[in-house]
């Protein structure tokens, strides 16, 4: 992976587990080294989880 951070779009796709759309290995290798991107992925995953829970709750109503 070239120097610099993972692109926002790729990080979004990674957090959504759209692994077919991203270079998963390259992202994971960057995440091992980069706390900034780890935090960004964690924030995106938390957001996605919150949205999923919200959707499931509405489905039950
Ligand atoms: Zn980074």
Give the class from helix and strand content and strand pairing: mainly alpha
H/I helix tally: 3
Average pLDDT level: 89
Bound ions, cofactors and other small molecules, one mention each: zinc ion
Percentage of helical residues?
over 70%
The sequence of SSEs as H and E is HHH
For the biggest sheet, the summary is: none
Tell me what you see in this structure.
With 61 residues, this protein is mostly helical. It has one domain (8-60). It has helices at 8-15, 24-33, 35-60. The longest helix has 26 residues, at 35-60. The termini are far apart.
In short:
This protein has 61 residues and is mostly helical. It has helices at residues 8-15, 24-33, 35-60.
Give me some keywords for this one.
single chain, mainly alpha, binds zinc ion
Topology, element by element:
Elements (H helix, E strand, L loop, with lengths): L7 H8 L8 H10 L1 H26 L1
Helix pairs in contact: 1-3, 2-3
The structure holds zinc ion.
């Amino acid at each position: 992976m070239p120097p610099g951070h993972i692109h926002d779009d790729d990080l979004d796709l990674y957090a959504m587990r759209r692994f077919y759309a991203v270079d998963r290995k390259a992202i994971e290798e960057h995440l091992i080294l980069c706390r900034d991107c780890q935090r960004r992925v964690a924030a995106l995953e938390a957001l996605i989880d919150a949205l999923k829970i919200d959707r499931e709750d509405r489905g039950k109503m």
